Amino acid sequence: MANAWKKYSDTKVVFDFTEGYKDFISTCKTERECVRKSIEIAKAHGFKDINYYIDGKIKLKPNDKVYYDNMGKSLALFIIGSEPIEKGMTILGAHVDSPRLDLKQHPLYEDKEIALLDTHYYGGIKPYQWVTLPMALHGVVCKKDGTKVEVVIGEDDNDPVVGISDLLIHLAKDQMGKKGSNVVEGEDLNVTVGSLPLSSEEKEAVKANVLKLLKDKYDIEDDDFISSEIEVVPSGKARDYGLDRSMVMGYGQDDRVCAYTSLMAMFEVDNPAKTLACLLVDKEEIGSVGATGMHSKFFENIVAELIWLKEGYNDIKLRRALTNSKMLSSDVSAAYDPNYPSVNEMKNTAFFGNGLVINKYTGSRGKSGSNDANAEYIAEIRNAFDKHEVSWQTSELGRVDQGGGGTIAYIMANYGMDVIDSGVAVQNMHAPWEVTSKVDIFEAKQGYVAFLKEM
Ligand code: MN
Ligand code: MN
Fold first, then answer.
1. I need a labelling partner for 89 at 20 to 30 A (CA). Which of 96, 226, 265, 271 fits?
2. How are the residues of the chain apportioned to helix, strand and coil, as percentages rounded to the nearest 5?
3. Which ligand is nearest to the Cα of residue 332, counting in written order?
4. Is the pLDDT assigned to residue 392 strictly greater than 90?
5. C-alpha distances out from residue 100 to 2, 104, 135, 179, 280, Å
6. Is residue 434 helix, strand or coil?
7. Strand 418-423's sheet: what is its strand order?
8. CB of 33 within 8 A of CB of 27?
9. Cα 288 to ligand 2 centre (Å)
């Protein structure tokens, strides 16, 4: 293993690539925003909505580029190969949902002339990390008349921000004695949004004033929160991290760092033999459930459509296409943290600057819940990366029995295809501000290109 930075006599290519990434994660802070932006970028690279073909009058042909937008929350992109799809696809998969706080269905209330929004956190968080920070509201409000209102408050320099209070140290004697998991309780992650009473109101005048602001600006009422999805996320842009600017600090890098690099890799390949796919999915952080998560049949269904549109459908072609596929399940790994070395076993740890990370297995307590990739497949992957001079490393998530985690790998492996976990190492994973190495981001993109070209 060598530091990947040393490969580059001119590091400009690395820094230039990560500028695009920083822009992406600065504006795309929800799964919906990621999908919308990814479609915009894909269209600029010649991708067409699959619905353009779906009536079957126009056949799909090799090198056609199509995408399928699943409810605006997950996305599948394809470059059609010259070989029959039943020979198998080469698939990159990442997730675009990230830990955050979701507003409840009845969020707004007033307590002693302070207006607050009640939340239910999404994904695995340490609640104490999410207090006393400038926060923004991103999401949609769907009204009964069918209109959808997009909300982004707290990102523009002229916007106000919101946030969650924490106890002053002077009165925190009881709190400081608590276990870390209870220092801040999930139910107490309430977002302060106002303190100015509406002069015409007697009761709950501060809440009334917040409602008036929402009515004036967005034409939404208190009841419209029932059919809304509003996410409370850290406010502000991704920034260069380190005096040498070698790293990125930003929100939601798990797993948008793999989503962005996978998407970009798709634009560097033309006229493939195998059909190439890039999946950007939702709900990974809560078990890949629901219509937009990887457990949904949406991917299988859309592959059936592709076969029908290219070659004429039958079920065995679909089964073969899925089983014969090869996939990189791209998700972040834990980067070595000099402040907390004890959680790692140093021979099998991911380090900043050492490139794309391969995890043979994830899971916990004896690999439970893991997709354990086949050695034969890992040999193929090594060969592809080395041929393209990609910097890569292997790791596992911490020492044995220290903890663990999972990804979408095992779900796709259910089809009988070869899948391995790969991704970018992250410090502060699931914290409001996560950190990655710029050269690792670039090597990930290079690795994904190598995979698409060689598999
Ligand atoms: Mn992840
Ligand atoms: Mn995660």
1. 96
2. 35, 25, 40
3. 1
4. yes
5. 35, 13, 10, 22, 18
6. strand
7. 48-49, 65-70, 74-79, 275-281, 89-95, 326-330, 418-423, 356-359, 392-394
8. yes
9. 11
